[in-house]
């Protein structure tokens, strides 16, 4: 863990400073409120890697853009939080499978952490930190 990052976050994870200072990794999980803006980039990578044909990508991206345009922003934010939580859970399960322990941390100063790490508050919502170590 970078001492720079540790110093910036220490007072913002008030009840979990031990994990911040001693874990091998301390990961901030974010939800992206504007993930729909990156659909072509995300799906394009799947095409590039051979996971998906380009025509399927174009169909899916067009469908999702149309769908997202009709969904209230609050619903997209809720979906983003759910997706981020599932990704965090998967990361924790994989870490465990590789012999690491994890600790999800929800008690921290969310707005202040975004400021300290220079993260765009309008785009990103902090979900949790995950401490990983042995």
From TrEMBL:
Q: Which residues form the signal peptide?
A: none
Q: Which cofactor does it need?
A: FMN
* Pfam families given in the database record: Nitroreductase
Q: Any idea which GO molecular function terms this record carries? A: oxidoreductase activity
The record places domain Nitroreductase at 65-134
Q: Which InterPro entries match?
A: Nitroreductase, Nitroreductase-like
Name by which UniProt lists this protein: Nitroreductase domain-containing protein
Question: Organism, per UniProt?
Answer: Macrococcus bovicus
């Amino acid at each position: 863990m970078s001492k720079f990052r540790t110093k910036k976050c220490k007072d913002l994870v008030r009840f979990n400073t031990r994990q911040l200072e001693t874990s091998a990794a301390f990961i901030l999980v974010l939800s992206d409120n504007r993930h729909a803006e990156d659909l072509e980039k995300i799906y394009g990578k799947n095409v590039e890697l051979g996971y998906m044909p380009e025509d399927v990508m174009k169909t899916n991206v067009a469908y999702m853009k149309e769908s997202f345009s009709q969904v209230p922003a609050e619903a997209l934010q809720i979906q983003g939080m759910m997706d981020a939580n599932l990704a965090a859970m998967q990361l924790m399960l994989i870490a465990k499978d590789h012999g690491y322990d994890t600790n999800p941390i929800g008690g921290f100063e969310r707005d202040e952490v975004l400021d300290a790490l220079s993260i765009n508050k309008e785009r990103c919502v902090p979900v949790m930190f995950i401490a990983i170590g042995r």
